Amino acid sequence: MQKRTDPADRVHWYGGPRPEPRRCEGDRTVETVIVGGGMAGLMCAERLRAAGREAVVVEAKFCGSGASGKTSGFITPDSELELSDLVRNHGPESARRLWDFAKGGVAAIRAQILEHGFDCDFQVQDSLFVATSDDGAKVVREEHAAQEQLGYTSTVYEKKDLAAIVGTDTYFAAIRYPETFGIDSYRYCRALQARLDVYEDTPVTAILDDGVATPRAKITAKNVVVCTDRLLPELHVAEDDIYHVQTFLAVSEPISDAAALRLFPGDKMMVWDTDTIYTYFRITGDQRLLIGSGNFVSTYAAREIHDPRRFAKKMYRYLERRFPGLDVRLDALWPGLIGISKDFAPIVGRETHRPHVLYAGSAAGLPWAAALGGYLAEKIIDGRSDLDTFFSRQRRFPVSRRVQAVVGKRAAFAMSHGMAKYLRK
């Protein structure tokens, strides 16, 4: 591959002009105040608005400034949890309910885009989960078996068939499934924000018994919904049960038609692999390659790591190994911190000592975040509770709070993730 300059340390999606923020400058009273202007908070507000309920969103920075606006934009029910994981952990019928819940998040995002004509680089692309080893191929086949068992549509490919799907013979197997797509998630958040009552540059300094405090005003509310994902503990919500993982995402300069065809001889797809710290990629509407990855040390780092040269080298090595000679020049590369629980599943609930406070975190994927936003709204509208047991922070985790108190939060989450999922790979 040709020598390339280092990519810029910047979020590619943030390149355009940003409107002047609307700040909360005076006290007000509403039925529901939602803390957090990412996918979950905005979708919660949209669901309440559609039901004729009053809600205001308060965002510390700007809508899409966190994980929701920095992501790869993969809109697929498969995030950190494959369907086979759900079957193994919960049994077939509960797995179906949870998978349908995530698929509902996919459908909700699609409906907003199509109904309102959101300009967010909507790219219909099937999902392709590829195996990087013989052991990975077993995981792929297990996932296909789970999809077949529960009646979902999927296609499994063996090694000999893959070069016609994704332009390399280095993968060992793959599963493909439809009804998924990619978006520019930052532009999606901005488009949704424009339809809602939102304050930006308005951090919540405290959750009160009757609302929230901000630097310039108090918002009195019957319900407080906290959708700050990995930052829930900063507001003393789910403090022991939410941490984060870090990934790195890069976007290339526009690639040639020949390079795009080299990657995908047929349909363009959203691809991720079976490695423990996995790599994922897709092509955007303006024909840029989007690629993400990380490493074990950086995944659980306490803070964002800004080192585009190091992670660009890893991504280039991956591309050279899988697609030798592919002409790609990475333009921008940035880190992102994603809220996570010890078993990858969401954390959702209502505080026992402050029953007016509802919360959701550890979405680990935009469709899950969208679905969780709707779930919290439906708790307010009609008391929905059917999935509370699955999402409760009181459920049993692979590493207990007692062990976590001894080894520390970072180590506890890394250990728990290994026990929950990765030991099988």
Q: What would you note in describing this structure?
A:
- The protein is an alpha+beta fold and 425 residues long.
- Helices cover 34% and strands 23% of the residues.
- It has helices at residues 39-50, 67-70, 83-90, 92-116, 134-149, 159-162, 185-193, 257-263, 296-299, 308-322, 366-382, 388-391, 401-407, 409-420, and strands at residues 28-35, 55-58, 74-75, 123-124, 126-131, 155-158, 173-177, 181-182, 198-199, 206-208, 211-213, 218-226, 243-254, 269-273, 280-283, 288-293, 330-340, 347-350, 357-361.
- The strands form three sheets. Strands 1, 2, 9, 10, 11, 12, 18 and 19 form an eight-stranded mixed β-sheet that branches. Strands 6-7-5-14-15-16-13-17 form an eight-stranded mixed β-sheet.
- Strand 1 (28-35), helix 1 (39-50) and strand 2 form a beta-alpha-beta unit.
- Helix 1 runs parallel beside helix 11 (366-382), helix 4 crosses helix 11 and helix 13 packs across helix 14 (409-420).
- The protein is globular.
- The mean pLDDT is 95.
